[in-house]
Amino acid sequence: MRHPPAALALAAIAAMATAAPPTRYERNDAPGGGWRVTAQFQNFNQDALTLAFDLHPDAVRASLAEFGYARDEINALLAACSGCDQAEFDRRAAAFYESRGISAALQPNGRTKLTVNVPAVVERNKPRLRALAQALGRVARERNYGPDQTLGAAVAFVQTALRYQLPPAVENGRNIIGFYPPPRALELGLGDCDSKSALLAGVLAHFSGVRMVGVHIPKHYLVAVARVPRHGDAYIEYRGEPFVLMEAAGPAWRPPGMISDQTRDALRTMQGVRIDPLF
Fold it and tell me: How open is the CA angle 134-224-178, to the nearest 5 degrees?
C-alpha cells in the first residue's frame, strides 16, 4: 500500500562520487536449464568481488506478466464498466492498476498519472531474488563481512555491475511505464533508478534486521536503510528514525550515505518528495 508523504530531514551531504571501477556482467545458459549470471565488480572497501547465481526464465516471465498492462486489458476494463458512473469506474481502474504493480493518481488537469508501486513490486519479486541474495551472503561469509560491508557489496553490485539504461515506455505490446521488474533487470543486466532501487531492496529484504524505505523525488528514486548515520552520511528521518540514503542508479560509484546533487537539491526543497515504507 502506498503511504502518504512523511516528514524528511536531510543531514550532512557526502562528498562527490568517483568513477566506478571496471565491471563485468555475463549471462550464460546453465547446464540444468535457465541462466547462470556472473558479475565482477568492486566493493567500496576496494575488494574485487564475484557474484554467481542462477536466474530462471520463468521468474522473468512471471515478473513481466504481473507488471504493466496491454491495450486489450484496458479495453476489457472499459467494456466491463460501460454502465458505471465515474466513481465506480475510478474505483475499478485503481484496483486494476494496483493489481498490475502500478499506482494511479488523478491530477488537477483531470489526467491520470501512473507510477511504479515500488513496495508492491519488491514484495512480489522478493522470492525470485533468493538465489542472488544467497550468493551475496556466501561472499559476505567468505570475506568475513559485517553488516556495513555486506550492504556496500549489495549497493556496489546494483549500482555498477548493472549498467544504467532507461527501459522503454512500451515493450512487446505492454505499457511498462519505463520500469523493469528485478528479474528482468537481472536478465538484461541493466536498469534505471527505480528499476535498480527495487532490485536492491528486494535483495536486502532477505537479510535479517534490514529495514528500508524508498524515496521518490522528481524524476528519480533511491533507497534508504535504517541505521545510525556515520560522519558525513546523508540521511532522512522517517517517523523519528534515521535512514541512510543509498543511490542504486549508478553509473557513479557512491557508497551508502553518499548522494547525488539532484537528490540533495530535491531534499532541500522537499517539492515532490514521497517516502515508501519497504518493511
Answer: 80
